[in-house]
Amino acid sequence: MGKVISLNISEKRGTEKTQVSSVNVIEGFGIEGDAHAGNWDRQISILPIEAMSKIPSNKMEEVKNGGFTENITISGILLDDLKIGDVIQVGEAVIKIQHIGKEEYKEHGRPYIVSREGRFGIVIKGGKINIGDFVKTIKSE
């Protein structure tokens, strides 16, 4: 079982996200107050901190010092345990992973790793998520 180590939202796309202590997640929509929420297949973004091991040494400092670009940062779950089609519970919310990474990789800052290893999905069940909440896989494809 993993846990939530950071929650982040932004009002405008293409900007760094601001860390918050809790979020309200809306079924079929995403995180209340986040610019990426809406009726599409990337309502919410998750970065497993374990993905940091995949960053080349020449990019590490840049990524670590970049601002948050993912909604939820988690720890304690292996990357291989977060596949497309998997359903995970994060706090009260339930999320189905639809994508790993983006079609176009970003080359600078934190988007470097999020664009490659971030998990993007849809909200199956809404609810509250707090920093420190548990994360667990409830259905694996």
UniProtKB/TrEMBL annotation:
SUPFAM superfamilies for this protein: PK beta-barrel domain-like (SSF50800)
Family annotation (InterPro entries): MoCF_Sase_C, MOSC_domain, Pyrv_Knase-like_insert_dom_sf
Superkingdom field: Bacteria
GO molecular function, one term: catalytic activity
Domain spans labelled MOSC: 18-138
Name of this protein: MOSC domain-containing protein
Organism: Clostridium scatologenes
